[in-house]
Amino acid sequence: MSLNALSGPRIKQAGDAGAPYETIRLDKLTPVIGAEISGVDLGGPISNRQMDEIHRALAENLVIFFRDQHMSQEQHLDFGRQFGPLHLHPAAPSEPGHPELMIIKADAQSVRANGEGWHSDVSCDEEPPLGSILYIKECPPAGGDTLFASMYAAYEALSDRMKAYLAGLTAIHDGEHVYRGMFANDGVADKARYPRAEHPVIRTHPVTGRKALYVNKGFTTRILGIPVDESEGILRYLYEHMENPLFQCRFRWQANSVAFWDNRCAQHRAMWDYWPHRRYGNRVTVKGARPV
Q1: HEC string for the chain
Q2: Residue 10 has pLDDT above 80, yes or no
Q3: What pLDDT digit, counting tens, does each position of 91-118 carry?
Q4: 37 pairs with which residues across the strands?
Q5: CB atoms < 10 A from the CB of 6, how many?
Q6: Which residues pair with 269 in a beta bridge?
Q7: What is the residue-averaged pLDDT of the chain?
Q8: Which CB contacts under 8 angstroms, 24+ apart, belong to 109-114?
Q9: Where is the TauD/TfdA-like domain positioned along the sequence (predicted)?
Q10: pLDDT confidence tier of residue 187, bands split at 50, 70 and 90
Q11: CA 1 – CA 214 distance, rounded (Å)
């Protein structure tokens, strides 16, 4: 079952956006984005009503967090499948026997860490991921926070003139410059080619119907239909605009924490400020649909 199939009709028909939750506790990190959920064991049986409310919480808050979770690899995968078929990363290493279970690791031997710049996961795919579920099992003694930013808020803060200018424009998202050689130190050989796709600069969320900016510094290389220098200037402005702290929340990881973010309306950035300490976990990513 997919988030589109579950969350969309439930929110629209029930009209319960903003209503109290009955089976989970939700504490918002900011009024704009982010909420911490308690009262749920992701490794155990989750009732239909609880799952409904988790779907709703994701749609309303863009990224949701869970503390003190203990999931096996299979339980992590099973939780992801509650939101749709799972996505295979085009480049990253995965756990043996589980290609859908991406390894997230940085330590004293690392030359880079996953997600250091602002991005939406694998937006270079023709059908970019719906969402990502990151389960961190080992944390450094300090640092390693992840920042999340609402692309709803970024879009809504644009002037009407800029919204009109961007409406109907599309942009290229390319994985070549991102993934080529990225995981060589992890023993991952490069592929002959990496995904490249064209997506709208402003996309409409299939569940909430809200508009969000959908370009990111990680993958977007140019806006089509305008001169190259104009594209560079507009993208530079949008990237700076998106980084406004008013659009953000910041999550401080603890061991056995889970973050689940909606790639269709949020971007994130992982802070690598903890070298030489180790951070380790797994990410399960849910397939999405072509942006419209």
Answers
A1: CCHHHHHHHHHHHHCCCCCCCCCCEEEECCCCCCEEEECCCCCCCCCHHHHHHHHHHHHHHCEEEECCCCCCHHHHHHHHHCCCCECCCCCCCEECCEEEEEEEEECCCCCCCCCCCCECCCCCCCCCCCEEEEEEEECCCCCCCEEEEEHHHHHHCCCHHHHHHHCCCEEEEECHHHHCCCCHHHCCCCCCCCCEEEEECEEECCCCCCEEECCCCCCEEEECCCCHHHHHHHHHHHHHHHCCHHHEEEECCCCCEEEEEECCCEEEEECCCCCCCCEEEEEEEECCCCCC
A2: no
A3: 999 999 999 999 999 999 998 888 889 9
A4: 26, 66
A5: 21
A6: 147
A7: 93
A8: 109/185, 110/185, 110/275, 111/185, 112/182, 112/272, 113/270, 113/272, 113/279, 114/270
A9: 27-285
A10: confident
A11: 25
Q: What is the distance of C-alpha 174 from the center of its chain?
A: 17
12: CB partners within 8 A, 6+ apart: none
- Say whether pLDDT at 7 is over 80: no
User: Catalytic residues, which ones?
Assistant: 119, 121, 268, 283
**Six token digits for residue 175:** 């994985």
User: What confidence score (pLDDT) does residue 114 get?
Assistant: 86
pLDDT of amino acid 231: 98
- Whether omega for the bond prior to residue 276 falls within 30 degrees of 0, making it cis, is yes
pLDDT in tens, 271-288: 999 999 999 999 999 999
Give domain 3-286's CATH superfamily: Clavaminate synthase-like (3.60.130.10)
Tokens 């800029």 -> residue: 162
CA distances to 9, 81, 252, 256, 289 from 133, rounded to whole Å, are 23, 11, 16, 13, 17
